[in-house]
Automatic annotation (TrEMBL):
It comes from the Bacteria. Residues 122-217 bind DNA. InterPro entries: CheY-like_superfamily, OmpR/PhoB-type_DNA-bd, Sig_transdc_resp-reg_receiver, WalR-like, WH-like_DNA-bd_sf. This is DNA-binding response regulator.
Length: 218
């Protein structure tokens, strides 16, 4: 699951933003000061950092400067109450990838998060004879193109990007449907059955009973 580190000391901002990111299907960790941000990034897998400029202890600019040498590819979205163009430029020079000014619209911030994370996704994924061209939404199985419905394509994307790993039912439902009401339905099982028929059955997508599914390398 994609992990977002939210570096924000204002609970009135951090709590609703954390809930919104979780509804989008991300795992969210929260850090309230600059030193804690550095420690969390250095000690765990973080996919994106949402970084408040005005953190106590060490501000966001200094955090960014210190992180960049060791984590050059970590996407950083900086939050700031400053709206002067000079401040934006300084932040970008420090290593931020994008900026959102406070107060921000939640929908805009989430869109920027999605855009930054898309940069990390490879254009083409190929595992065990199945090739996905993500932006073109094409799937080839053993060299022949296969037509997938939208949810089938998204299911395959989630599994293929984590090939060899078990992906839980809950993670799939969050990422593909974003609808908790489906947790007690057979919707996932039906779509998985349709997908398997098109790409080679359980030889490629194994059921891990009681947990979820795994896309096999071989």
């Amino acid at each position: 699951m994609t992990t977002v580190l939210l570096a924000e000391d204002d609970g009135a901002i951090a709590e609703p933003l954390s809930r919104a990111l979780q509804r989008e299907g991300y795992r969210v960790d929260v850090a309230a000061d600059g030193v804690a941000v550095l420690d969390r990034v250095c000690n765990g897998d973080i996919d994106l950092l949402v970084l408040d400029l005005g953190l106590p202890g060490m501000d966001g600019l200094e955090v960014c400067r210190r992180l960049r040498p060791g984590f050059p590819d970590l996407p950083v979205l900086m939050l700031t109450a400053r709206t002067d163009e000079v401040d934006f430029v300084v932040g970008l020079d420090a290593g931020a990838d994008d900026y959102v000014g406070k107060p921000f619209r939640l929908a805009e911030l989430l869109a920027r998060v999605r855009a930054l994370l898309r940069r990390l996704t490879p254009e083409t994924v190929e595992v065990g004879g199945v090739r996905m061209e993500l932006s073109g939404r094409r799937v080839l199985v053993d060299g022949s193109e296969v037509a997938l419905a939208n949810k089938e394509f998204e299911l395959l994307r989630v599994l293929l990007l984590r090939a060899g790993q078990v992906v839980t039912r809950e993670e799939i439902l969050r990422e593909v449907w974003n609808d908790p009401d489906l947790k007690t339905s057979k919707t996932l099982d039906m779509h998985m059955s349709w997908l398997r028929r098109k790409i080679g059955g359980e030889r490629r997508i194994a059921t891990v009973r009681g947990v979820g599914f795994r896309f096999n390398h071989d």
